[in-house]
Amino acid sequence: MRLDIKVVPGSSRSAVKKENGVLKVYLTKPAHDGEANVQLIRVLAEYLGIKKYQLEIIKGHTSRNKVVQIDDDANPGIKK
């Protein structure tokens, strides 16, 4: 499964919100040296109730708009 993600780095707190069919993820880390990408994986895994290794950024490593792949063997109880 693939998710379209919009990242907002440098926020005051971490949060995940669904807006217009896209997950908007607010991150406290800056978009510098991949810090926001690392936090994105951690926050999404917690939100979806899966392990971090089951998520991979497949598009948009340096962009605010990203595509994240969820491993097919991931938890079937994912929030949609």
Radius of gyration: 12 Å
Main sheet attributes: strand count, strand direction, barrel closure: 5 strands, mixed
Broad shape: globular
SSE succession:
EEEHEE
Mean pLDDT: 90
Q: CATH homologous superfamily name?
A: YggU-like
Content-based structural category: alpha+beta
The total strand number stands at 5
From the 3D structure, determine the CATH topology.
Answer: Conserved Hypothetical Protein Mth637, Chain: A
Stretches where pLDDT is under 50 for at least 5 consecutive residues are none
Strand ordering within the main sheet: 2-3-1-5-4
Please give the CATH architecture: 2-Layer Sandwich
Give the strand content. 35-45%
Number of domains in the coordinates? 1
Number of helices: 1
What is the CATH C-level name?
Alpha Beta
Architecture overview:
With 80 residues, this protein is an alpha+beta fold. The longest helix is centred in the middle third of the chain and has 14 residues. Strand 4 and strand 5 form a beta hairpin. A five-stranded mixed β-sheet has the order 2-3-1-5-4, with helices on one face. The protein has a single domain, classed as Conserved Hypothetical Protein Mth637, Chain: A. The protein has one helix and five strands; from the N terminus they run E-E-E-H-E-E. It is 18% helix and 35% strand. The model has no long low-confidence stretch (mean pLDDT 90).
